[in-house]
Amino acid sequence: MSPFQPSILEDLKNLLSPSQVFGSESVRNQHSHDESYHTPVLPDGVVYAESTADVVKLVQYANLHHIPLVPFGSGSGLEGQVVPVHGGISLDLTHMNRVLEVLPQDFLVRVQPGVTRTQLNEVLKPQGLFFPVDPGADASLGGMAATNASGTTTVRYGAMKDNVRSLQVVLANGSVIHTSSLASKSSSGYNLTPLFVGSEGTLGVFTELWLQVYGIPEATTAARAAFPDIESCVQAATDIIGAGISVVRMELVDAPFFPYLNAYKQTHYPEAPTLFLEFQGNAKSVQVDLEITQEIVQEGGCQAFEFYTTAEQRAQLWETRHNAAYAFKHAHVGFEHMSTDVCVPISKLPLAVTRAKQLLVQTGVIGAIVGHVGDGNFHVSMAVKPEDPEDMAKAYRFNEKLVYYALELNGTCTGEHGVGLGKRKYQAKEHGSALAVMQTIKQALDPSDLLNPGKLVDPED
Ligand SMILES: Cc1cc2nc3c(=O)[nH]c(=O)nc-3n(C[C@H](O)[C@H](O)[C@H](O)COP(=O)(O)OP(=O)(O)OC[C@H]3O[C@@H](n4cnc5c(N)ncnc54)[C@H](O)[C@@H]3O)c2cc1C
C-alpha cells in the first residue's frame, strides 16, 4: 500500500508547479491503464515532468516519502507495464517532447523521452534520414526504449536495444548518469545501455536518448504473397531469410485475420495465410531481391504474388497491417483484446505457429495470428471477456501453453511486448538462476523499490 497523503500533491505543486500536478479522477483514470486487458489501478496522483531537473526533484521527494513512481510514456503498452499496482505517482513524460539535436554526419539524434517515433521521423525526413524501429502504435521513444520495442523493420534494423546509443537516466537515488559515450563501439566498462533498455521503468527514468538513425534508401518495393496454408507460408519466410535476401519487413497475417481487415480497411485481400514484405536498397538490388523472393515463394506454393512500387500503394499495405489489432477489436464488440507474443529461433517458427493454431482450437479461444516472422516473433490476438472467469481461464491456459512451448524451443515468453503484469509469472521458468542476478541489480539500483514496483523481476504475489 502506498503511504499517500493528500498533502503530498500540495507539496509537489510547491516543488514543481501547480500546472504539472494532478489529483483529479479523470487524469488519474487516464494513467491507470495502458492498451492491455489488465485491470486498471488508479495512481494517487499524476505529475507531468517538463525537464530532467523536475524528474530529479520528484525522485528525491519520492525517496524521502517512500512513494512509488511509475514512468508513463504514451500508454500504448500491451502488458500493463504502466499500471501503478502499488499506487503512488504516475510520472508522465509526454511534455518532454523535443528533438534536441540531430548529428547527420554521425547518424545520431538526441531526443527527450516523450518524442514519438512519427514525430521524430517528420523532423528527420527533410535531412534524408529516418528512425526505423516501428511498433505500429505511435509510442514515445522513452517507452519504446523501456520495453525494448521492435516491430515490422526489426528483421533488418534490429530492436530498440540495437538503436539506442546512450541514455541519460535519473536513478532511484536522484543521481543522473549517461550510460555510454557516443562511440559506435566500446570495450570500456560494463555495458549499461542494454541493461536499462527493456527495464520497464524499474531501474531509472530516461530523460534523454541518443538514437541511431539511417539514410532513407534510394528504392523501396513492397510485396504480398498468399499461401494455401500456414506451414508453407512460414516455411517460405524462413527460406527467404536463409537465401540472404535483405528483406526490411516480413510480416505474417494468418487467414482468419483477413475478414476483419478487409471489413475494417475496405480492402479485398484473399483470405489466406499471407506474407507482407518490403525490400530496400538501390533500384538494382531491390529488383534482384524481388525476383529471387518471387522464385522462392512460388517454389513454396505461393498462390498470389503482387508487388507495390508507389509510396501510396506501400502506405496502404502497411497501414492495413498496422491496423490488424484494431480490426480484430472492431470485429469483437463486447470483448476485450488480449494480445500475447512469443519469439523463437527462426528455424522453429513453423513449429511454433502451427502449435499456436492447434492450441487455439483445443482451448476454444477466439484468436488469430499475426507476426514479425522475419525475426521469429508472432502475436496472437484474442477476444476475451475479463468479467467472465471461465473465459479468462481459457485464455490464460492458451497463453501458458504457448509460452511453455516457446521456452521448450529455446525461445522467449515475449519478443517485444514486454513482461509487465502478464509475463511476470514466466520469468523464473525462462531465466532460472539468472533471475536472482536481475533481482540483485534491481536491489542495488533501487533498494527502496520505488520505481515501478511489483513489475518485471518482482516475484508474483
Ligand atoms: C495496436 C498496437 C500494436 C503494437 N505493436 C507493437 C509491436 O509491433 N512491437 C512492440 O514492441 N510493441 C507493440 N505495441 C506495444 C507498445 O506500443 C510498446 O510496448 C511501446 O514501446 C510502449 O511505448 P509507450 O510510450 O506507449 O510506453 P508506455 O506504455 O507508456 O510504458 C511502457 C513502459 O515503459 C516505461 N517507461 C515509459 N517511459 C519511460 C521513461 N522515459 N523512462 C523509463 N521508463 C519509461 C513505463 O514505466 C512502462 O513500464 C503495440 C501496441 C498497440 C496498441
What structural keywords apply?
alpha+beta; Uridine Diphospho-n-acetylenolpyruvylglucosamine Reductase, domain 2; Uridine Diphospho-n-acetylenolpyruvylglucosamine Reductase, domain 3; Alpha-Beta Plaits; 4 domains; 7-stranded antiparallel sheet; 5-stranded antiparallel sheet; 17 helices; 18 strands; globular; binds flavin-adenine dinucleotide
Explain what this protein looks like in three dimensions.
This protein has 461 residues and is an alpha+beta fold. It folds into four domains: 6-94, Uridine Diphospho-n-acetylenolpyruvylglucosamine Reductase, domain 2, CATH 3.30.43; 99-215, Uridine Diphospho-n-acetylenolpyruvylglucosamine Reductase, domain 3 (2-Layer Sandwich); 219-325, Alpha-Beta Plaits (2-Layer Sandwich); 332-428, Alpha-Beta Plaits, CATH 3.30.70. The protein has helices at 6-15, 25-30, 52-65, 117-124, 141-146, 154-157, 160-163, 192-196, 230-242, 258-265, 283-299, 311-322, 324-331, 349-363, 389-408, 427-431, 434-445; strands at 21-22, 45-48, 69-72, 89-92, 99-103, 108-111, 129-130, 164-171, 176-178, 204-212, 214-215, 219-226, 247-253, 274-281, 304-308, 336-343, 367-372, 377-384. The strands form four sheets. Strands 15-12-14-13-17-18-16 form a seven-stranded antiparallel sheet, sandwiched between helices. The protein has a five-stranded antiparallel sheet with strand order 5-6-10-8-9. Strands 1-2-4-3 form a four-stranded mixed sheet, covered by helices on one side. Strand 8 (164-171) and strand 9 (176-178) form a beta hairpin. The model has no long low-confidence stretch (mean pLDDT 95).
